[in-house]
Give the backbone structure.
Amino acid sequence: MSRLVIPTNSEAQNVVEELYKDLERRIIASPPGLCPIDVTAAFLRMCHAQTCGKCVPCRIGLRQLTNLLEDILNGKGTMEHLTKLQETARVIESTADCAIGYTAAEMVLKGLDGFNEDFISHILHNRCSSGLEHPVPCVALCPAGVDIPGYIALTAEGRYADAVRLIRKDNPFPNACALVCEHPCESRCRRNMLDTSINIRGIKRVAIDMAGYVAPPECAPSTGKRIAIIGGGPSGLSAAYYLQLMGHQTTVIEKRKKLGGMLLYGIPSYRLPRERLEGDINVILETGVEVQTNTAVGNEEGQITLEELREQYDAIYISIGAHRDKKIGIDGEDSIGVVSAVEFLRAIGDGNSPDLSGKRICVIGGGNVAMDVARSSVRLGAERTAVVYRRRKDDMTALPDEIESAMAEGVEIMELYAPEHIEADSRGAVKALWVSQQMPGAISGGRPSPTPVGTPPVPIECDIIIAAVGQSIESKYFVEQGIDAKRGVIQATGWTSIQNMPGIFAGGDCATGPATVIRAIAAGKVAAANIDQYLGFNHQITCDVEIPDPDLSDRVPCGRVNLKERDAIERKGDFTITQCGMSLKEAQQESKRCLRCDHFGYGNFKGGRIKSW
Amino acid sequence: MVNSISIKINNKEVQVPEGTRIIDACRDNGYKIPSLCFLKDINEIGACRICVVEVKGISHLVPSCNNTVQEGMEILTNSPRVREARKINAELLLSQHNANCPTCVRSSNCELKRVANDLDLTDNWYKNEYPEALWSKSFPLIRDASKCIKCMRCVQICDKIQTLNIWDVSGTGSHTTVDVSNNKEIKASDCSLCGQCVTHCPTAALHERDDVEAINGIDGELANPEKVTVAIVAPSVRASWGEEFGLSPEFATDKRFVATLKSVGFDYVFDADFAADLTIMEESSELIARLREPEKYSWPMFTSCCPGWVSFAKTQYPDILPQLSTAKSPQQMFGTVIKTYFAQKKGIKPENISCVSLMPCLSKKRELTLPGMDSAGTGHDIDYVLTTREICRLIKADNIDVTLQPETNFDDPLGEASGAGVIFGTSGGVLEAALRTAYFKVTGKNPDLGENSPLKVLRNISSHKEIEIELGNKKLHCAAVSSLGEARKLITSIKRGECHYDFVEVMACPGGCINGGGQPIHPSYNSMPNSYTERDHCLREYDNRNNIRFSHENKAIQTLYNDYLDFPMSDRAHHLLHVEKY
């Protein structure tokens, strides 16, 4: 018998480690719409397996919580069960010795708070109010509800134009989305249960790249109705497209020189080439949309008033986006050389790119816009580009891929520095950004709050400071016209209408705050349907493309094809698209990974395909 | 010098020594906090979460057993949150406890029941579910999984005090429980049957095999007209039996116990102190014999009267077994003498005699079955062992009003006993008794037993006592240790050559038989029950009051040798009173 032994995992332990990973992936792939109580009971059983068994609240308490939940799920629950559940969880939370117990109880308490109605529905009516439909995960998580398994199957068969037609049924921006969509569709892909999610956006890009020009479908006979759309960004143009297809006449009123909104004025062309965006917009305009650029809505000279629009049009859709820059709120912000990300990117969008040769740039912020600005600066010849962020790199809201790409292109990430003030020289031009060192503090809203370390501020010498600290909405005029807004965000309903303003609808960033392109498109789609209905019609948007039958071969775990970027050394010198598409061979393999949830499982019963809307 | 700090308990400002446990600080100031798993210095793991208190500024509740007070701490022992937490945690425990209280041996002193009653739990909402009890019914120690509250006291007492590591946590998650360590069967384990896990168990999850039915049942020994039933009363039982009836040791005397046992139906009641004297005669002679030829033996010589200790030696240090005295324990000597000498004298067929030994011990239940414990030639020399708790249950079952019992002498001819015999029941007593007689045998005179006694140090309350005593021209270095942990320490020390002894007494239970695993249980969070010093005092008083204080002066012993055994270590004595090998 020796005193010490080198620890080695048993075969059983190795398998358990594998199962942990399987479970992690399985949780990622949790289908939306599960019964929250059933899920809680299942989680509790797992928590209970983790308990060391030392103390009573955890060892016995978690078990009794599960019993109570089981009773409720089995229709044997009473309102007293709910009280007992609350009491028991509360006591476990306050008396369990370690995190295994108290965090498990917190989970139950969170549920009692968050889905109390589901509990009551189970107890009083023995009915689950959720989970009545089991949608296809990717489709359900796409705000626009694009038929993803459908176009993946079409791409796999080489029917690229059909794939584009199918996408356009729900999203008239296939090009833009193939390149810059944040792809929420991939987040709960059931393929995670086997290996990892499908590269949906990558497959879409193959379809787009290969399809070439695809004409829009025929418009329905004219209804004679006229709709004004304020703002020619993705939301407004989506609404215009579908309303045109329904036979209405739309007019897009755009304040700036060009259509595209943030897709043009916010996203640099190395991510979304101009001609790609124009491809989408041209097809939309082919449906007969009228456009008035350089036209603003307001009551100043040369502007159209809302009142005038109400008189001239049968309905109005407000989709003005979120184009106003937010201030940093520190001394020296008005120095020469301090610009906002919105201004900076807008200038590039309008073709007036500044020359940053030899300049040292500080970008303040940690979102995707900060990365767009930083990477654009590199391309405009900046000598040094630093992103200054008050939290950790891990806490940045920018996509990890964007951060990685920026760093590869030479952008320096300076984490945990909070801007204190801007120092200017005698001419009033930026000399340095003074920052103070931060440390991560208590978690608030899911992220640790930056807390000063207490060391004196230090200067970061620079010539230009670009503030990418968020955007707000220029909604003041609309508020004056009686439209409700909270902190600038226009208060529209879930079906895009405005309360007490019949005929006026709003959606996209201006109604949600800065969000994603696909959410803006989805809002446009919803607005189109509801405006159609408001005008007294029920036009259906459909697509007659036949979806291929699913492949019956075995599902063998297989790696996901990720898209590569052009080499950093090459790409950082130009604004040409950085991301490389898949080869056809890669696309074949990747498309075949799709589990076809539209057919298998609940898909061939009720949760499958929505053919028209 | 410990600093005093000021804290608030239930809004009352009090001063307590720095480093005091919250539970102690509260108790010392009049706020008793219930607890279940807590065993001071032994088990401070905060498992039951019954002793939680609210501390101002901390959102979770704090277990008071394993946290100390801090300057300015504001403690609430009975806030609404604390009340709810205690109640629910107690209900949770009860939900997995087989609460068949009326038929439970711990019905009167179950700590879980007390906590539940004190908290006024009148209903339990939780689903009652407890595991099946799968255990050997024949082993003297029974574990009833359906009653275990997983306080882990048994694990800790066995690990820390007895160092035998018999128990361990078993299973994970919701299936966490206690079981024999290393997945062994209890029978195959090194369990010494000291029973310390039983006396520290808050419920009846651990208890002795109940042999009461075999004595007072319809087919029991007392009901059998053929049988002559003989009760043998261990020294320490007289110090504790009254506790089960709420009687003081001054009232609940050995003699009243004799009368009570007679009224239950025992034909003869003998005093095991007599056999203790006999053991001393043999053991002291053996010591002197070994001292005459010191080079033939390994040293020290160890006592052998405690079966827990003998079991420990067998499993942990088999190489020292030749150093154990070959003298049987008083129980086994008595069984042999009753079934030979006494049977002959009374003309009773030994097979018709049923020897029922009343002991503070579980290990004695196994001892009677060991090889060689059948010297009388009619099966086991001792037929049954009942613990103090069992015999008291038997008496209670007969609804005897103990307070009305007279005082009756033990039966003759084996009825006389010396004060040396009675102190066998407490740590240091065997050594002192042996030295009293050895001293006489070597020097020809009795040692002083008064204030200036050279043996006085052996009466201290300590788990490790040492004495040096001149025995003729030889200076003897002796030690008395109690608890198996102390025994292990001592043996390790001896093996390392750090010390040398000639004679060592070992008792498996801390403090000796008065704190044995079969004694009445008084729930407490102290690992040594409060009754321990009272029981020790009681036995010392029996010794002090006895006219005969030396085993060699016991007339009945002398008669036994004259009539039957010849002399200590004679062939017959050897055959009947010693073991061939361990």
